[in-house]
Amino acid sequence: MAFPTVPCPLHIFEPCYRLMIRRCMETGTKRFGMCLGDDLKGFADYGCLLEIRDVKFFSDGRSVVDTIGRRRFKVIQHRERDGYNTADIEYLEDVMVEGTAEQELQSLHDVVYDQALVWVNSLKTEQKERIEGHFGPLPGKDSELQSSPNGPSWCWWLLAVLPLDGRAQLPFLALTSLKDRLSGIRKVLLFMAHCRHR
């Protein structure tokens, strides 16, 4: 799974994906979409646009691609080109709220962020170091809660590092309600805290 604002290093070795990366670089977009695989449809209906920050090529044709998540999308229709999947997509954005709903959202946000902090700080030192080495530290709170169409970056960081299966992560990518995303994250954190205290 790839998420907005979260680094996603990739090891590319299959010829079709080597071609795709080369095309992304040559066209100058330096962007491609990534979706979770699906046994029936080929890939999931929701994904994340990745931006290539750097590519290291090896003599045997393999490459390590340093990417970061940018925008969420919904797949409208898909096909294949030269062995890799392509799709028409529609970008997703969180629905903005105002007034009382915004105040409630801010309160929920602060509570869930504090829970996230507790969970991160409860990790064993080597676990935390491994996560931070790969994804960086837990991002701080955004000063403007609804300034990004994807919501706060710490939510995506947390979803990337929580021990969840891709199928459990996918619905979070599809949500356009920050309140629903925060409520879902809160449930996961409460469940994990409950399991730890058993």
TrEMBL record:
InterPro entries named among the record's database cross-references: Lon_prtase_N, Lon_prtase_N_sf, PUA-like_sf
Q: Which SMART domains match?
A: LON
UniProt cross-references to Gene3D superfamilies, sorted A to Z: LON domain-like
Annotated Lon N-terminal domain residues? 1-193
GO MF entries: ubiquitin protein ligase activity
Q: What protein is this chain from?
A: Lon N-terminal domain-containing protein
According to its UniProt entry, this protein's organism is Mola mola (Ocean sunfish)
